[in-house]
Fold these 3 entries.
Entry 1:
Amino acid sequence: MVKLKIYVFRHGQTYYNRDHIFTGWKDSKLTPKGIKQAKIIAKKLKNKKFQVAYTSDLSRCKDTLKEVLRYHLEVKEKIIDWRLRERRYGKLEGHHHSEFVKMAGTKDYKTLLHWNKIDHLEGKERKEFIKKHGEADLQIIRRSYTNKPPRGENMPMVEKRVYAFIKDMLKKMKKEKSSIAISASGNSMRPFRKYFEHLTRNQMMKLENPWDDYFEYTINS
């Protein structure tokens, strides 16, 4: 039995991340801080061994992986796979979080009822929640499993494409007896970690993925 390794990490900070702008599928570059974070990951992985590297097709992931691969001449294959992309935020992409809060603050009360977020509240607590539902809507969009932004993705959609990627990845690993590294995004890492750490849906949605560290998994082949 051969023990194969998976090393998965998040890209470094981008300019959109820094400025609190919805990024999604927009191609925001790494900040100087983001490059430093990528270098930290690279040093942490310096003594690990892997033969194949995956990255999403967005520059922030490719540039993070570039730093990692400086220490890994043994890597024979680099694969770009769009399924590792961040969750798509649709019409929100390129807009500051505060813009959405302002917009959502004028939304109809029925929006919150539809999103099933205030059914358990009563009296004063219910009124205060409704008054502040602009900020609440922002958190629902960012953390909700089933709701999706206009023309964007919900987490089941992200989960579907990431699970399809995992299936193909595992097949390749076992066939070629290869360990791999993966440069991904925060929301594509959530279902990835859910799969390998056997997490519940709620546990997955609470995950925070670090900018400057990695997660390691072992596969028996």
Entry 2:
Amino acid sequence: MDKRLLLLSTSKLYGSEYLDHAEAEIRNFLGTIGRILFVPFAIADRDAYAAKTRERFAAMGYALESLHQTSDKQQAVSDAEAIFIGGGNTFRLLKSLYEFELLPLIRARVENGMPYIGSSAGSNVAGPTIRTTNDMPIVEPPSLNALGLVPFQINPHYLDPDPGSTHMGETREERILQFLEENETPVVALREGAMLRVEAGATILKGSTGARIFRKGQPPIEVLPGSDLKDVIIGTH
């Protein structure tokens, strides 16, 4: 069955509120689905995170259940109509997914057609590994291997090099190129406001800000909204 994913670089864009910039795309993606299973494990205060997200989805017309408040987490994933994995710290999120033995189950559900929405850390874990996250490893998951729902790495919140900056540390681009010195997997760097919609054999870049594609041994490429990433990433589909 066709996989369906909506992967957001961020849940909040400058000048707007939580998920405002993605509301139209979320509504279009979910369609007639009525209930969402929310995974808040990337944030420490899961009750507050779930309450905020429940209120936001209710405003869009969707009921939301938070996975941390369910008695049987595996059953909740098995029964879910759609899943939304929120942002926060990617290492904490992945550690929890391992602890609750949810990775194979989520992967199987999505591969069998359950819609998946990820934001920031939730988009990170959709890739093969979390090696291109921006987060500090505040906890240690058993592995850096993630869901592998898409065959490329994701780098959310991508920042272009600032030619006027006096900062002498590595730019985001330099760090991604270092990843490609040791790994073969392409990296999709999503700027704030960018998102990917995966379905029907396509990976379409959505949003307003574009993305940058990094591939081993090749110069980075700029990708504009509306582009299908299969045209620039060999082996995406």
Entry 3:
Amino acid sequence: MSSSLFPEEKSFGHVYNGRYHLPLLPGEEGTKTGGDWVPRGLRRTTNLVGGISDTKALGIWVLEQTLIGLVRQPSLFEELAMLVHEGDSQGVNWRKLKEHPTLRKALSGTWKDEDSCIAGRARHAAGANEARQAGINRHAAWEYRGKTGGLIGTPEMQEQLQETERLLREAGLERMAGLSERVIRNTEVNAAGKFDDILLDRNTGELLIADLKTKATEFYTWLEVDAQLAVYARAQHMLNEAGDGYERGPASYVSCSKGVVLHQPSDGGPARLRKADLDFGWETALLCREVLDRRSYGKSVARKALSEWPGENLPDPVDIPTDSD
């Protein structure tokens, strides 16, 4: 059946079009149609903190992988050539692709079109998506372990997971039942997200926010990592297990100064534990929020109105005769 005739029924705590669908807080205004959900959804924490990083190197890498993929799978280049030629015949202005959403989606799409657009399939042909999928696999195995106590995945994955557990035991850290894969809402930075774990430090009695990372190498920068965990730790609200309302968020019981990174490299390298600096991370998260707000204002109608030069839109002057006439 057509998805336009039967729209997808949304569930709280899930991501749709890149934003979390969550219920309203007491006294919060809903949609104009009376819906009981946050209008337009909430920005993902990863997207919030991602605005602080220098993405030039990532952009170059993505371009490189796309070009390599077009060579690895010539049929993709053929498809691209046909698409461009058809666009040329229809008079497409390639400098204004946003005016052609269907064509743009076929070429590069968005994050949700990664597996269908030409650019996304080219990167897959180049092997660029291997690390991403390996990371997804490790998150799924870790979540399954927490919920059932069972082990899934390849022998190498299971060994890496058990090595992580050994490191946690040696550090005196223990996963807290019922506090894994929970969705939070942080109203101070207006973002939502899902943390992997809350750990009990048996040495101090503290509860620590923890997140699983699968980057293949050591972290080049801790900006995003620290900021992400800080947003989770300072979240005032957490979606309840029934998924229809909120309960107390981590801010009321976990440390807001330190967190734990569970590092399981996607290339199968040895597991590691790393410390997160949540004081530094929170300062970064607040800065990220300010940057996003300023970007939004810079494109706003209010700011554009301020840019208009006085008298610019006045009627053309009347031709008044002068003495010389």
